[in-house]
Amino acid sequence: MSEVTLTINNEEVKAKQGMTILEAAQTVGIEIPTLCHHEKLVPYGACRVCLVELTNGKKSRLVTSCAYPVEEGLTVMTESAPVVKARRMILELMWARSPGVEPIRRLGTKYGISGVQAIREYGITPPQPKFEIEPTYCVLCGMCVRYCEEVKRKNAIGFIGRGTEREVVFFPEIARKECPGCEECFKLCPTGALPSHYALTEARAATE
Amino acid sequence: MPTLKTPQDLERLRKDLSAARDPKKPCVTVCSGTGCHAYGCDKISEAFQAEIKKQGLEKKVDIRRTGCHGFCERGTLVVVFPDEVCYLRVKPEDVPEIVSTTLKQNKLVERLLYSDGDGKKITHEGEIPFYKHQNRIVFGSNRLLDPKKIDEYIALGGYSALAKALSGMTPKQVLDEVKKANLRGRGGGGFPAGIKWEVTRNAPGDVKYVIVNADEGDPGAYMDRSLLEGNPHSVLEGLIIGAYAIGAQQGYVYVRQEYPLAVENLSVALKQARENGLLGKNILGSGFDFDVKVHRGAGAFVSGEETALMTALEGRVGESRPKYVYPAIKGLYGKPTNINNVETWATVPLIINKGADWFTGIGTQGSKGTKIFSLVGKVNNTGLVEVPMGMTLREVVFDIGGGIPNGKKFKGVQTGGPSGGVLPDKLLDLKVDFDELTKAGSMMGSGGMIVMDEENCMVDIARYFLHFLAEESCGKCVPCREGIYQMLKIVDRICAGDGRDGDSDLLQEIAEVVRDASLCALGGTAPNPVLSTIRYFKDEYDAHIWQKECPAGVCKSLIQYFIVPEKCKACLICLRNCPAEAITGAKNQVHVINQEKCTKCGVCLEVCPTKFDAVTKLSGRKIHTQAVTA
After folding, report:
1. How far apart are the first and last CA of chain A?
2. FRET partner for B611 with CA separation of 20 to 30 A, picked from A12, A174, B234, B622?
3. Does ipTM top 0.90?
4. In this complex, do B481 and A159 lie within 8 Å of one another by their Cβ atoms?
């Protein structure tokens, strides 16, 4: 396979054709945060935390490094001001939604998001939360859904609903048959919410 | 029906068909687009059939049911050919008079003609201001043919562009012509179709697809629907030509299930095209094989986004996927796929027939040709209009649209649906094309144009679109799912009178990230309604946040209705009509609205006789002043 040269954070990086920016960065130890990425799965581009800034002449734009394939001569910045601004907002939005999820708290803290639900900096007193809280554990990274579909090819778990109504569900007809003895998706869940979800479905199925 | 085996067969058929069409023979055309269906065009068409028979004109007069003519405000539309006498708002009871007066005696039914402001009557369709300022190169054939009859399309020269392409041009030549025409995608993005075709054509792989995106979903927009209903063969012809240029063997039309007439007419068109040998194996003897399937979409707005559409076509839930490798290279089922909007495809035959030079003669530097808009909202002449690119908003809204009803003041025009923005009166002279609209913070979108007057609250408009988008976001990526939701929450509280210091800054902050960081164009353009209203109507946001006032009097939490005691004649009308029983009073006793009970429906204001004018709607500080004096 042919090799391409790109620049990441002013550093020249050689990468194999077909790699993503994220993979290329990892080969030289440049860290780009991710939440919905898994090397066994097709790039999904949902959490947008791995955004990087791509510059082409005067134009620059944000792309997800997990999905963008390397090209000869790409100029990539992984922590530029636009990247940090977007990443911070994304983490704030996720934190507001899932305040109890450890990876989000950890990453959020790293990007200087202080306190729960990010108290508004310019608010009147008493301080009000920047975003209203609708707490949930699942961050909809889709890791479990994609793993079951792409690796296990069972489709025992999937999404229902649109927008903020979106949620992960086990399909009882399939799950009853396939999940006991597999449960491989449990380990993937970044929140630990998935096993409880499954237990709930199982419990419901048992009472029916 | 004979199967057409060569371009000569097609030409022969066209000659036979047009010879059979006597241009002097009177023909009653009943518009049967969706709008006129709602008005009851079925009954009118039946009435014409019965009446013509009754008056013994069966042999002398043809009746044709066509697709949408565009002037939906005045439906049901009836045009009597050959003189193109245009009757508006025709009711079944008008039919006998039209038959006896116009068809028998060749005289006019004056009362059904268009009447301009001074009461002057206009007879011919083309002279009505609504039509006069248009240039209907794509949409104009709608009124000339019955969409369920391929013969009528062929008689008017239909499929001649296909014959020309297949017999006289190489795929590369077809592609070059479209590229030269600089045809830009009519679905919203405005990406040059020719370049997209070229990338698909050059992409490695033998299996390639072409798709018609008929998943029109913008609120108030219905031009793709009307085109597909009224002239499905024009879309199909464009698609076949495109497939030939690109080297695709299979096409799809992704059309919304909510468009039953479009699905029906399209299915009929496909069947007839197949029977005539215009689809299938060895089309017109060229050796080119191509067929088309119809896929009915389940009605998710996001499925109009091309990658989501392809995902849906594959049988999954319609969700966008990263587009860093273009669908033109890796699209449907991972194969090179070219997707264009209905209107884009329908423009292709015109370019092939008349040439790229003709096409580039219309429009502006960067945007060529015409664009169909659905002109709706607070405008006198609502309907579908096709205008050359570069026409000003003022010409569209005032010359064609006839201005704002009821003497109200123009406030803004929303273009591009949920992806677009609201443009204020100071931009009325903006030339409408892809680039100018984007520069102004809106976008062409698929061509929705919603006119707003002084009684529209811009914060409420932003709220409406955010609400729409929050429901239609697929929920896959974080900025779109969570960002739109939080923006909606903020705008909701501003409308409810709970706006906070810094809310417009916070909106702006979220909006920018949603725009820059979302996975697909739905999220990428979702902040436009918010950003454009903040940009052009910041004072309205401020009034809501600081004065707790809705200047347009729309946001219910911020308005109150009052009865002015000095003006109230105690006539009991408002009292009896109030659905909440919130008005107290009696004969000879001034009426008072109980604010606790009032649901702010505004019925009292509507029913209070104009000569009394005793009910007022107040907002902000005025409420307190009123409360103190009362």
Report:
1. 55
2. B622
3. yes
4. no
Answer whether B375's CB lies under 8 Å from B414's CB.
Answer: no
Q: How many residues does chain B have?
A: 630
Contact assignment for B506 to A130 by CB distance below 8 Å? yes
B479 contacts in chain A (CB < 8 Å)? 48, 86, 89-90, 93
Q: Which residues of A96-129 are buried (b: 16+ CB within 10 A; e: fewer)?
A: bbbbebebbbebbeebebeeebbebeebeeeeee
Nearest to B482 among A86, A94, A159 (CB): A94
A166 to chain B: nearest residue by CA?
Answer: B475
- Rounded Cα distance, B138 and B371, in Å: 9
Q: Amino acid identity, residue B397?
A: V
One pLDDT digit (tens) per residue for chain A, 208 residues:
689 999 999 999 999 999 999 999 999 999 999 999 999 999 999 999 999 999 987 889 999 999 999 999 999 999 999 999 999 999 999 988 888 888 998 999 999 886 544 444 444 445 567 776 667 888 999 999 999 999 999 999 999 999 989 999 888 888 888 888 888 999 899 888 887 777 777 767 776 6
Nearest to B483 among A93, A142, A162 (CB): A93
Cβ–Cβ gap B321/A61 under 8 Å = no
d(CA B50, CA B36): 19
**Angle separating helix axes B260-275 and B232-246, nearest 10 degrees:** 60
Beta bridge partners of B187: none
Element holding B585 (H helix, E strand): strand B583-586
Cβ of A48 under 8 Å from any chain B Cβ? Answer: yes
How many angstroms separate the CA atoms of B267 and B295, rounded? 11
Helix intervals (H) in B211-340: 223-230, 232-246, 260-275, 306-313
Domains along the sequence of chain B with CATH? 21-142 (3.40.30.10), 158-359 (3.40.50.11540), 370-453 (3.10.20.600), 458-546 (1.20.1440.230), 559-619 (3.30.70.20)
B85 membership: H or E segment, kind and range: strand B85-87
Question: Are the beta carbons of B446 and B189 closer than 8 angstroms?
Answer: no
Question: Does the global pTM surpass 0.95?
Answer: no
Q: Which of B230, B287, B309 is nearest to B262 (CA)?
A: B230
Q: How many CB atoms lie within 10 A of CB A18?
A: 11
- Determine which of A162, A166, A169 to mutate to test the interface with B (most B C-beta atoms within 10 Å): A162
- The Cα–Cα gap between B580 and B570 comes to 18
Task: Select the residue of A46, A120, A166 nearest B502 (Cβ to Cβ).
Answer: A120
Per-residue tokens: B547: 């004065």
Would you call the peptide bond into B76 cis, given omega within 30 degrees of 0 as the criterion?
yes
Q: How far is B30 from chain A (nearest CA, A)?
A: 41
Contact A123 B471 (CB under 8 A): no
